[in-house]
Amino acid sequence: MAFAILCKIIFALLILLPISTTAQTNLNITLGSSIVANRSNSTWLSPSGEFAFGFQQIVPGGYLLAIWFNNIPERTIVWSANRNNLAEEGSIIQLFQDGRFELNDPRGQRIWAANLVGPRVAYAAMLDTGNFVLASNTSRVVWQSFDEPTDTLLPGQTLNQGQDLVASFSETNYSSGRFLFAMQTDGNLVFYTRNFPMNDNIFAYNATQTVGSGYQVVFNQSGFIFLAARNGTILSFLSSDSTSSSQSYQRAILEYDGVLRHYVYPRFANSTNGRAMGWSVSNFLPSNICMRIRSNNGPGACGFNSFCSLGTDQRPNCGCPYGYSPVDPNDRMSGCKPSFIPQSCDRELNETGLFSFIEMLNTNWPDSDYDHFEPVNEDWCRQACLDDCFCAVAIYRSSSCWKKKFPLSNGRLDSSVGGKALIKIMSDNATANATSCNQQNRKDRSTLIIAGSTLLGSSVFINLLLLSSLLFFVCYNRRKPKILQPSTVLPGVNIRSFSFIELQEATNGFKEELGSGNCSTVYKGVLDNENRKLIAVKKLGKIAEIAEVEFMAEVSSISKTNHKNLVQLLGYCDEGQNKLLVYEFMSNGSLASFLFENSRPKWYTRVQIACAIARGLCYLHEECSTQIIHCDIKPQNVLLDESLIAKISDFGISKLLRPDQTRTTTCIRGTRGYVAPEWFRNMPITVKVDVYSFGILLLELICCRRSVQTDVENENEEILSYWAYDCYKDRTLKLLVADDEEAIYDIKQFEKLLMISLWCIQEDPSLRPNMKRVLNMLEGSVEVPIPPNPESFTIIS
């Protein structure tokens, strides 16, 4: 017993190694030093170069004064000073001669300043721990970023009583968001929903229940995150990882969806932990946020009228019921709005017959009910909601009926919920004309009331004449077809509309061409009124029918998306024959150029690009508010930014699916060599056509050669997919790898990626995995089974 206690004490001492508060002396930043927010990207680096301090440009918006991981392609931000007040170009962060450390705009107005208490600052330093410190001439820390965390903890950092993490608003908006992780002064460690945009808290959705005993959260260098008491006793482990910070980069972040995730990124190419290069989730809390949040106030995990469900990757997915659409397509947590006019309570209209129900199993919106009945049957519950103009949804479960009213909150879809939700929507045959009918009915009655008042003071003859004219006017207008005027703003699109002259000036008369396709040409441009931001302007050819279809498809699809691995659409121009799309500028061009025209890219860079493309496709297929089939995945349609982050582009031939659709029929689309076989077999098209194209692209990435190559000595090597399977079957992988020493060194990873690609290019669409599973296999969370011969598909006539 004594020996066991001694072991526990030694273990506690090992993981509670003290954190040094003495600043490193290497690469000290002297008084008077400064950095200007501009495109020069000047930074202050830590001694090893692993962390950088400087400005990150946030598009659109301005500059974020931040600290980030600097030695990996993903410049992941771990701390920021001005998250709620972005700095404009030309702003300066300066360590003044008197020791002040301030961020000022170009006019000298203060944006942010370090709160200094203690001796005079003599220098600053960016440490290899990710901590930025201001120190005295005795190396005593006067101020440090570790004491003012934003949403992230790093190894060597603690979260003390009274400190907290505040989630960002979204994946791309770093301002304070909807969730809080607080180490309270009473010792309790609590997750809260925030009364956004105010700072007060609403609901505690997870807590350690350590009031009176909790002291600080410790993230030590061994990869353990735990809650400790003041005397060092470990009260609760929040997370741990088998690799130490010397083997991997690590961070714990309260993400914008309210989940605290512990991320790990292997430091070395020959890491033996089995992880692919890239951030992977080690642990997360709470296990199911969808089921944890239940409050009388606030929208829940996903927003009003939406529902939250846990995806296969254990991330919360926010969805809208059938008949509803996102309030903000760029913010998946913004909630949902009905795409129809809710039932009127005007008894004279008698709209009961216009509405019906859509069923959703295992779905509920707790705390939105205002009536409860039992015991009743389902038909009774349906009719009760149908007859009640206040009822938006009825929940039927175990002979009980709950009526729900707008706005619906805390929506969740989970197998543990049980029962079914009966969502009242306008029937399909009534949706098209319900708006005009209701408005016209109300207008007609108003007209009759006003006219009737006038008639009472007139002669009988005039009264009859006016009444006849009035009835004719009303009937004529009700029967008269409505002429829809063309709109200058595309419906459902929340992006900027540019004039043709603006874009002509921005591109200097469409002077610098970046690339061209069958129906469009892309030009480089600069927006002078937005800090000279670089843009790419896609000008569609003046072939009316093709241009119109492509333009509408691309704007409709990509404007509904928001993901770091999709090229951001900034705006459009729609002036007659002039149809243009304005995108963020991608400085490293297309993946095709990167892969085939220059020297061979590094193996792990190619792996990262493959994972990024998979994440983008996974978003389009499963997480976007409207499921999108891209239809033309190929290296030319993947662009690379300044950090070689891959982003999918060119949605000109994409196909959108309605919420109730999983497949569609359409003419052959795509590019030769990447087109799935079902296009040629008159089969229904599903998201699996993108999976096939991704499989071909993955083969090109890992083998670093084109899918069809005629200039080879052996004709068996012309078609990469055929040759790849032969090499896999014959165990001659080194023929595919050729002289790629990095891939040879990592041959196990190469074989895994080859197997994934072979699964993706199966001729039978049902055998191909969906992109969520592909991503899980790439990230190593799912085993990759042995793939069959991709050509084994037979057609049954």
TrEMBL record:
SMART domains: B_lectin (SM00108), S_TKc (SM00220). It catalyses: L-seryl-[protein] + ATP = O-phospho-L-seryl-[protein] + ADP + H(+); L-threonyl-[protein] + ATP = O-phospho-L-threonyl-[protein] + ADP + H(+). Residues 20-147 form the Bulb-type lectin domain. The keyword Chloroplast does not apply. Residues 508-782 form the Protein kinase domain. Residues 1-23 form the signal peptide. The chain crosses the membrane at residues 448-476. It is found in: Membrane. It comes from the Eukaryota. Gene3D superfamilies: Bulb-type lectin domain, Phosphorylase Kinase, domain 1, Transferase(Phosphotransferase) domain 1. It is a single-pass membrane protein. Its EC number is 2.7.11.1. The keyword Cell inner membrane does not apply. It holds the Pfam family B_lectin. Keywords: ATP-binding, Disulfide bond, EGF-like domain, Glycoprotein, Kinase, Membrane, Nucleotide-binding, Receptor, Serine/threonine-protein kinase, Signal, Transferase, Transmembrane, Transmembrane helix. Belongs to the protein kinase superfamily. Ser/Thr protein kinase family. PANTHER family: G-TYPE LECTIN S-RECEPTOR-LIKE SERINE/THREONINE-PROTEIN KINASE SD2-5 (PTHR47976), G-TYPE LECTIN S-RECEPTOR-LIKE SERINE_THREONINE-PROTEIN KINASE LECRK1 (PTHR47976:SF108). This is Receptor-like serine/threonine-protein kinase. It comes from Penstemon davidsonii. The lineage of its organism: Eukaryota, Viridiplantae, Streptophyta, Embryophyta, Tracheophyta.
